C-alpha cells in the first residue's frame, strides 16, 4: 500500500485521513458531509509508554480521537462497514490504507460490542510493507486497544505464527507465511492456521489475486470452503465460518486484453477470485490534481564511436563462433536471440558457441547501458566483467591450473586489444547519449523553479539506478541547486547486482521523507506499495511497464503543482508504450463502469460461473500435480555435468536438501572436483546459516554455487542453473531453478554428517 503516514501538523495532501478533535475542526468545512465520527472506548486512542519506540515512525498528538473520512473514502468504505466483501479501487496516494485501518477498527469494535472476538490479518506481497504498515498505519491507530503484530521472512520470532495469530487481534504479514500455515493445517503437519480463525482479511495490491499468485492460492481455499458451505447449508449442517474480504488496489489492469470484453472478463475474474460483492471506486474531485505530463523526445547520436567499437567486438565474436544474427545489435530482439543460442549450445555441449554467447550478452548490455547512462559506466561494467572472468581462471592455489580454451583466450585478447580505445572514447562528452542530456536539463529546470522540490526517477535496472545516482552526485550543477540523490532498488536476488535489504530501503525512504535526500532514483520496486512521501517531480527515464505500473508511478507525483516527465531512451519505445498504456487505462475504466452498471443478479451469476470455473481449473491443476509427483524421477537417474566443461559432477543421490530450500553436496568426491574462493559481497547471515564464499569447478572455473556455513559445518550449496542436467538420459533444455526439476532429494542428515566431520578431525589430530 502506498500511503504515507500522517504528519503531526496535518495538511491538505489527499493521501492523509485526518484525525481531529470535534471541538477544534481543521480548515473549516474541508470534511463537510463526512460525518462518520464514532465514540471511542476509554483510552482507545491513548498510547502506552511501552509503545513509544515502536511509534516513532508515526507520531501523533494525544488530542486526536475521532477518525474522519473524506466523502469519497466513506463512499467506498460503506459496503465493507456493512460486512460485505469488496474491492476498493482508488489511485495511489488517495488514502486506501487509512480506509482499511478505519474498516479494521470498526470491525473489531463491532464484534467486541457484541461480545465476539475479532481477528484481522493484513496481507502484503512484499517484505518491506509489513514493517511499513505496522509502524506507520495500523499500530498507531489501533494500540493499545488491540494487540497488533507483524510477521515476515525477515522476522526472527521465537514463537510460531500459529501462536501469534492466537494471541493477536491484528496480524500484518506476507501472504506466503499465511499460505504456508494454512497448508500445514490442511496437511495435518501441525496445528497451523485455518481461515475460520480469521474474521477479516485485508489484501493489499489485490490485483495480484490471479493464477499462480500466492494471494490466489489463499483465496482458492476460501472459495472451496464457501461452496462446501453452500452444500452444508442445504444439508442443514453447521457452516465453517469464513472471514470478510477487503481488497485494495490502485488499478486492476486489463491483463492481456485487447478488446473491451476481455478487459471486463479480466476484472470480473479478479472480483470473483476475491469473492467481491462489488468493486468500489470514486472520483477524488477537488482533492486530487493530476500531475502535468509531458514526453521528452531525443535525437540519435550523430556519431557513436564508443558503440561502434563494441559492435566491432561483437561482430568479431560472431565470425569466430560462426553466428549470423538477423537483428540489430543492442536491441531486445538480439538479447532474446543470443539467450536462445546460449541455451542450445549448453544442451549440445558446444562450449565454443556457449562462451561466445555469454560474452555477446554482456556486450549487448554494454550497448544498452551506453544509451541509458554514461559511456564511462558502460565501460566500467565491461571492464569489471573482464577482470572477474580473468580472476575466475586464476586459481587461489598456484599449483592448481584451471583450463582455458582457445575461444576463451580469443575473447580475453579481443577485449584487451580494444580496451584502451573504449576507455579513451568513454570520456569524450560530445559522444554521450541525448537521453542523459535531456535528463540533466529537466532535473535542473524542475528543481530550480521550486522552493521545495522532491522527485523520483524511475529506471529499468538496478545497475542504471546506481549509476544514475553516482552521476547525479558527481555533477556540481546539481549540488549548486541542492539536489541530494540516493537510490532504492529491490531486495530479491534475481539480479547479479547486490540487492538492498529491507533495512537499507527503509533508511533511504526515511531520509527522503525528512528531506535529507530529495531525489530518489528507483527501479519498479518503488512503483507499487512502498510508502514513499509525496513528490512533485516524477521522471520515467526510458522505463514504462504496463498500465498498472504507469498509474502507480504517476501516482507518486501527488503534491501540488506536480510534473510527470517521460524521457525517451534508445530502443525502449516508451512513447509507443505510453500510448498503449493510455488506451489500456481508458479501456480499464470503461470496463469497471460497465461492471458496476450490471444488475446484482447478472453480477452474481457471473461471479458464480467464474468461481466454479476457477475451482474446476484448480482441481485439474492439482490432479496434474499429483500425477507429476507420482512420476518424480529417482535421484539416481539424474546426472549433473559442469556447464563450463561438461565434466561429470554428481548424481541426484549425492544431493541433500536443507530446510526444503538449499540443495547441498557434502560428499568427499564433490570436494575433490571443486574449489572455494572468498566473495565478501555474497556474505549473508541468517539464524541457522551464513554464506561466505563461491564454489567453482576445479577444471574450468565455472561457478557452481556458494559455500554455506550451516550449524558449524561447511555445506556447498549448488545452483542448478550452473549445470547441465540429464534425467534418464535426456538433457533438460531449461532448468534455471530447482523447482523446474521433478526430483525429490533426500533431506540433509546433519547428525550423520557432523559425526563424519568430527571423526575426520580426530584422525587429523592424531
3D architecture notes:
42% of the residues lie in helices and 15% in strands. It is built from 21 helices and 27 strands. The longest helix is centred in the last third of the chain and has 31 residues, at 600-630. Mean pLDDT is 82; it is low at 1-64.
Short précis:
This protein is about 40% helix and about 15% strand. It has 21 helices and 27 strands.
Question: What characteristics describe this protein?
Answer:
globular, alpha/beta, disordered N terminus, six-stranded parallel sheet, about 775 residues
Per-chain topology:
Layout: E1 19-20, E2 66-67, H1 71-81, E3 86-89, H2 96-113, E4 120-124, H3 127-142, E5 148-151, H4 161-167, E6 170-174, H5 175-187, E7 200-203, H6 214-234, E8 244-249, H7 260-273, E9 278-280, E10 292-296, H8 305-321, H9 332-347, H10 351-372, H11 375-392, H12 406-425, H13 434-448, E11 455-458, H14 462-473, H15 476-480, E12 485-488, H16 502-514, E13 519-522, E14 537-541, H17 547-555, E15 563-567, H18 574-596, H19 600-630, E16 638-642, E17 648-651, E18 656-658, E19 662-664, H20 668-673, E20 674-678, E21 684-685, E22 689-697, E23 703-710, E24 713-718, E25 723-727, E26 730-731, E27 746-747, H21 750-765
Parallel strand pairs: 3-8, 3-9, 4-6, 4-7, 5-6, 7-8, 10-15, 11-13, 11-14, 12-13, 14-15, 18-27
Antiparallel strand pairs: 1-2, 16-17, 16-25, 18-19, 20-22, 21-22, 22-23, 23-24, 25-26
Helix pairs in contact: 1-2, 2-3, 5-6, 7-18, 7-19, 8-10, 8-12, 9-10, 10-11, 11-12, 17-18
Amino acid at each position: 500500500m502506498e500511503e504515507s503516514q500522517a504528519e503531526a501538523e496535518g495538511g491538505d495532501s489527499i493521501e492523509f485521513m485526518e484525525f481531529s478533535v470535534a471541538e477544534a475542526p481543521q480548515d473549516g468545512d474541508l470534511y463537510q458531509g463526512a460525518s462518520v465520527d464514532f465514540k471511542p472506548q476509554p483510552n482507545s486512542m491513548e498510547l502506552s509508554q511501552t509503545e513509544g519506540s515502536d511509534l516513532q515512525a508515526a507520531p501523533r498528538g494525544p488530542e486526536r480521537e475521532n477518525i474522519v473520512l473524506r466523502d469519497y473514502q466513506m463512499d467506498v468504505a460503506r459496503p465493507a462497514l456493512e460486512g460485505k466483501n469488496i474491492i476498493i479501487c482508488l489511485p495511489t496516494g488517495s488514502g486506501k490504507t487509512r480506509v482499511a485501518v478505519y474498516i479494521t477498527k470498526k470491525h473489531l469494535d463491532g464484534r467486541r460490542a457484541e461480545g465476539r472476538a475479532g481477528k484481522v490479518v493484513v496481507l502484503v506481497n512484499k517484505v518491506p510493507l509489513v514493517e511499513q504498515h505496522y509502524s506507520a498505519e495500523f499500530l498507531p491507530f489501533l494500540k493499545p486497544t488491540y494487540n497488533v503484530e507483524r510477521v515476515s521472512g525477515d522476522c526472527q520470532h521465537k514463537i510460531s505464527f500459529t501462536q501469534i495469530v492466537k494471541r493477536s487481534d491484528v496480524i500484518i504479514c506476507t501472504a506466503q507465511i499465511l499460505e504456508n500455515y494454512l497448508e500445514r493445517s490442511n496437511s495435518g503437519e501441525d496445528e497451523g492456521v485455518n481461515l475460520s480463525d480469521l474474521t477479516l482479511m485485508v489484501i493489499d495490491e489485490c490485483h495480484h489475486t490471479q493464477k499462480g499468485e500466492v494471494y490466489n492460492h489463499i483465496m482458492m481455499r476460501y472459495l472451496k470452503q464457501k461452496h462446501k458451505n453452500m452444500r452444508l447449508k442445504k444439508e442443514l449442517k453447521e457452516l465453517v465460518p469464513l472471514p470478510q474480504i477487503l481488497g485494495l488496489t490502485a488499478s486492476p489492469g486489463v491483463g492481456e486484453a485487447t478488446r473491451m470484453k476481455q478487459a471486463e472478463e479480466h476484472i470480473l475474474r479478479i472480483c470473483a477470485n476475491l469473492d467481491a460483492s462489488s468493486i468500489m471506486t470514486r472520483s477524488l474531485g477537488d482533492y486530487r490534481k493530476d500531475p502535468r505530463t509531458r514526453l521528452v523526445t531525443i535525437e540519435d547520436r550523430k556519431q557513436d564511436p564508443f558503440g561502434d567499437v563494441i559492435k566491432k567486438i561483437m561482430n568479431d565474436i560472431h565470425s569466430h563462433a560462426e553466428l549470423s544474427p538477423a537483428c540489430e545489435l543492442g536491441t531486445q530482439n538480439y538479447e532474446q536471440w543470443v539467450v536462445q543460442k546460449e541455451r542450445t549450445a549448453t544442451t549440445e555441449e558446444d562450449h565454443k558457441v556457449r562462451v561466445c554467447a555469454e560474452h555477446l550478452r554482456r556486450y549487448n548490455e554494454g550497448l544498452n547501458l551506453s544509451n541509458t547512462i554514461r559511456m564511462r559506466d558502460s565501460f566500467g561494467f565491461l571492464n569489471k566483467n573482464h577482470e572477474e572472468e580473468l580472476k575466475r581462471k586464476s586459481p587461489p592455489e598456484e599449483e592448481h591450473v584451471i583450463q582455458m580454451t582457445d575461444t576463451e583466450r580469443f575473447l580475453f585478447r579481443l577485449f584487451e586489444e580494444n580496451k584502451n580505445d573504449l576507455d579513451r572514447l568513454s570520456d569524450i562528452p560530445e559522444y554521450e547519449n541525448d537521453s542523459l542530456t535531456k535528463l540533466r536539463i529537466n532535473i535542473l529546470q524542475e528543481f530550480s523553479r521550486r522552493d521545495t522540490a522532491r522527485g523520483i526517477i524511475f529506471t529499468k535496472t538496478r545497475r542504471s539506478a546506481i549509476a544514475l545516482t553516482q552521476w547525479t552526485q558527481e555533477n556540481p550543477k546539481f549540488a549548486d541547486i541542492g539536489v541530494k540523490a540516493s537510490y532504492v532498488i529491490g531486495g530479491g536476488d534475481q539480479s547479479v547486482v547486490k540487492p538492498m535489504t529491507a533495512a537499507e530501503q527503509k533508511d533511504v525512504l526515511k531520509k527522503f521523507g525528512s528531506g535529507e535526500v530529495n531525489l530518489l532514483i528507483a527501479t519498479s520496486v518503488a512503483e507499487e506499495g512502498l510508502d514513499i512521501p509525496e513528490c512533485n517531480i516524477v521522471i520515467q527515464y526510458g522505463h514504462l511497464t504496463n498500465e498498472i505500473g504507469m498509474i502507480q508511478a504517476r501516482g507518486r507525483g501527488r503534491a501540488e503543482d506536480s510534473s510527470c516527465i517521460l524521457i525517451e531512451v534508445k530502443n525502449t519505445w516508451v512513447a509507443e508504450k505510453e500510448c498503449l498504456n493510455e488506451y489500456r487505462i481508458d479501456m480499464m475504466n470503461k470496463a469497471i463502469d460497465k461492471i458496476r452498471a450490471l444488475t446484482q443478479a447478472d453480477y452474481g451469476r457471473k461471479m458464480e460461473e467464474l468461481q466454479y470455473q476457477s475451482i474446476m481449473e484448480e482441481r485439474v491443476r492439482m490432479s496434474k500435480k499429483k500425477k507429476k509427483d507420482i512420476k518424480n524421477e529417482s535421484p539416481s537417474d539424474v546426472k549433473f555435468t559442469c556447464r563450463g566443461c561438461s565434466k561429470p559432477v554428481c548424481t541426484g543421490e549425492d544431493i541433500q536438501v536443507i530446510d526444503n530450500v538449499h540443495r547441498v553436496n557434502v560428499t568427499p568426491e564433490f570436494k575433490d572436483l571443486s574449489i572455494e574462493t572468498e566473495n565478501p559481497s555474497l556474505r549473508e547471515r541468517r539464524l541457522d546459516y551464513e554464506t561466505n564464499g563461491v564454489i567453482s569447478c576445479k577444471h574450468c572455473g565455472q561457478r557452481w554455487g556458494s559455500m554455506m556455513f550451516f550449524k558449524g559445518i561447511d555445506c556447498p550449496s549448488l545452483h542448478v542453473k550452473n549445470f547441465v542436467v540429464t534425467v534418464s538420459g535426456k538433457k533438460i533444455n531449461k532448468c534455471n531453478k530447482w523447482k523446474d526439476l521433478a526430483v525429490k532429494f533426500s533431506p540433509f542428515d546433519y547428525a550423520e554428517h557432523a559425526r563424519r566431520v568430527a571423526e575426520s578431525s580426530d584422525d587429523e589430530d592424531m
